[in-house]
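Format notes (please read before filing issues)

Several people have asked whether sequences and structure tokens are stored in separate files. They are not. Every record keeps both together, in the order shown below: the sequence lines, then the token lines. Line labels are part of the format and must not be stripped during preprocessing.
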Amino acid sequence: MEKENPKAEDFDKVKCLLHIGTYKFVAVAHKAKRVESKAAVITSTTEAKLGEANVPSCVYSKVMDVTVSGNTTQEVKIEFGKRITSSFDLTVTDAYPDEIETVEIILNPSNNKATNPYAFDPSTGFAANQFAYNVSLNRKSFSILSFTGKTISASLFLTAEEQKMNVTINMKNIKGETRYTRTLNDVTFRQHTSTIAKGTFFSSQVSGSFTFDTTDDTSINIPLSPQDK
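Then the structure lines:
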């Protein structure tokens, strides 16, 4: 059963008739990035698929047992808890060159690319295998003149509560040519956590470093030296 219109008065309620017995309820909710986005497709208690262009930061899922004990009305409350996804937030503190038209973030670049729709286990929030997630953002999609001062995010499904992976950041011009690139090694990701990379990227003089901060956990500082074109 799909619920797609958050403006509907009964959006957070589902009614159905069930015979006496024990059932598995599976629920998936996500923050859609497009008005025309559809609800997740749930095929079993261990597989659901999400058809967004990129994995949204806010995805929730829950699997629970429900017992219908008699000929009566029962109200079942589904507590989703924390989101099941992990996110990478990039904040570059120096100015972007005017030529940079597109920022590409590749999470786990050495693995096979995750295919759309994205499959995950709604009982755990984990993907079946480790995949590469590619998010490419163009200035036109933001309707901005420059990325300077903007935080750029990418989200993914992990295969465990904590996972280390490399992150490649490519800065491209209007022709799609990579003008600057950097790979950050062994970055820590945790489920329902944002890993925040903040620091200089283009400056020839380094006054700081990228700081990796996983929410609700101790900060992890990784020195970073900018590379030439």
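For reference, the curators noted about this record: Residues 205-229 have pLDDT under 50 and may be disordered. The two ends are 52 Å apart (CA to CA).
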